[in-house]
Amino acid sequence: MTSRPLRRALRVTGGFWAALLACTAVGLGVVDNASPLQASHPSAVAVLFFASVVVVLVSALTRRMHFEAPTARAQRVSRWMRLAPSFADLEVALAMAAATYALLSVTGGLHSDLYPLLYAVVAFSATFQTRVAAGLTVTAVVALELSLLQRAGSAGLEPAIYHLVFLFGAVAVHALFLRGLVAANRRNHDIRVHSEVVKQQESARDYRLISVALGAESRAPRTRREEEQILQAGSVATISASIYHSLSLLHQALEARSCVLLWRGDSDSELKIKEVVSDCDSITEEPTIALSGVLKAVARDGHALIMGHCKPGQISYYEGAFDAGAFMGIPVIQGKHLRGILCLDREKPFTEKEREIAERAAQQVLDAIRSEQVFSTVEKAKYEHERFYNASALLCRALTMEQVQDTAFDAAAAIVDYDVAVLTLHDADRSKHRVTSVRVKDGSPNIVNVERLQGLEFRDNAGLASMVVKNKHYLPTGGAPRDSSTPVFNNKLRFQCESLLVLPLLSADEAIGTLTLASHRRGQFRKDVREMLGVISNQVAVSMQNALMYKRMETMATTDGLTGLTNHRSFQERFADLVERSQRHGHQAAMLLCDVDHFKNVNDTYGHPVGDEVLRRVARVLQEAVRKIDIPARYGGEEFAVVLEATDLEGALGLAERIREDVKAMVLESDQGTFGITMSIGVTSFPADGADPAELIERADLSLYHAKENGRNQVVCYRDFLAARKSRKAS
């Protein structure tokens, strides 16, 4: 009985092996006319073979159409499932090749009129496969081709070279053609999308939904741009629907031939056709028309214009020499500015009452645009405040200085699109500034030498950063440098940018540093942006202070205040983690439990301040003796503990002896003169002396007690303690 993985492998790759067997049969000449199998019936075997391969091919294509990618579990279980797509590709390609060769054998072999079909099949198969599968397919066909030429008795290399050139040429031409077609389609799609985006932005600017600067020059971050495009698209669609509805009603009510809304864009000499409702097919398809004829008269006077007859060319939105029996133009005025013209024409003259109806329709159009302007303003303000709130929330959650710095850059990016952001801290006592963090946006131009900027230190000077810290106000006031010579940090480092803003980090009315933002685009730091960034920079300062306080509290919670070593509680946690890690990786570890000999006499003789200094000096010896991965700690009173990671017993004993000798060599001073101290040390090893921290500490304490009981100023390991106890019992 076959195993499940073997059955799965056969199910996935069975067709591939069948196709490979068919190609092998072709290579051995089974379907050739000269084959012994075909001596009596030269075509029967080839036809039967061709039919069999076609069955395999149809089966492969059917399974290919219903193929589903293996699940994550299947990918973990079997490597065959991961190779399933490649096997499926090869199966189809090899089956097609074998079937093609069988067909060629039936129809004349090398001299068959269908021989070019082979090149088409190989080119098609190789183009739509992965690179590995395509390479294997072409290799297999080349081998079959050479085998066929050899059996046909072709002399020399010339026929083989011809065949291979045609083969590889077909593959290359097909692949290049397909890739060119795909690239052209992708390029056309991008052009259409870009054109639609441009049209939406132009309509948004025309309706004053966004500022000209934002639509024309701004290159906002992706998320911001998407939000603005969605808002613009919705507003433009709403306005367009409202305008079309108004023009349709007006067209029916006044029995007009054409109702056209023309809008003034960026140019005062041209009008854009925004909406058309017409029974005539002579309306121009051009997006803009010249402000001329009767349209110019309406724009000049700013009043409604009714004409009984218009000569050809007077109405410029018509193509050719088009006559209008009557024309009416209604100016659309917003404030004191002409925004557009509502035009109507028909055969019979317009009346004053109809003029009033048209003016009300023009007012409805203007009201719809105003409503969307207000809505767009509110939505943009909502979006800006939402981003501002999210940025503030991120800063509030930041605990470490690294988190604060990263979050500060993210918060600024949520408000404005910058290329370079720099954080500095100011040391008021030394009158010095230091660059603590820099962020450069990917793909941004070379605004500043970032390598020289990293870790830069500079003193108070006439640069913008120093002036901002001194005055506690952002600079430049307009958000743009006067020229490229404006120093930011020092005279040696210049920012080549169009927009620049240096903000103070204010905490308790003191500037603790700066946040500098630079962009190569103009007008990035508008007044509203500067105000929001000012609030963000103050929050950054508060978050930095909180991070420093958090670090101090964390240090106080884990560090002994007198010696600066790890305190007892933190030592227990770290020791447990180290033992667990050593057990998991199969590493050794060791522990030293140290005690200052006769420390009570030191306090009684020289006083507690001297005793405290003794403990600090001992702590310094321990810190200098161990590695960064080790854990020196004050265990309690005059007791110290050291945990050594990845250290055997012999290494621990050697380190303990060095510590003991260094402590003994110390010369301590007091009012009574100089004096010295000694230290006793107990040593245990993991896992030989214990499987958990409690057991190791207990046995280290026993070893330490033995050292003090037997003269002090010595190192005793648990092994020696056991030997001494056994000896005492024996005696």
What is this entry, summarized?
With 731 residues, the protein is an alpha+beta fold. It has 22 helices and 20 strands. 34% of the residues are buried.
Q: How far apart, in Å, are the first and last alpha carbons?
A: 71 Å
The tally of structural domains comes to 4
Number of helices: 22
| Average pLDDT for all residues | 79
Percentage of β-strand residues:
15-25%
Strand order of the largest sheet: 3-2-1-6-5-4
In terms of quaternary structure, the protein is: single chain
Number of strands: 20
Radius of gyration: 43 Å
Largest sheet: 6 strands, antiparallel
Class from secondary-structure proportions: alpha+beta
Low-confidence stretches at least 5 residues in length (pLDDT < 50)?
34-42, 67-84, 211-223
The best one-word shape is flat
Give a verbal description of the structure.
The structure is a single chain. The two termini are 71 Å apart. This protein is 55% helix and 17% strand. By secondary structure, it is α+β, with helices and mostly antiparallel strands. The protein has 22 helices and 20 strands. The model is unreliable at 34-42, 67-84 and 211-223 (pLDDT under 50). β7 (420-427) and β8 form a beta hairpin.
Please supply descriptive tags for the structure shown above.
single chain; 731 residues; alpha+beta; Beta-Lactamase; 4 domains; 5-stranded antiparallel β-sheet; 17% strand; flat
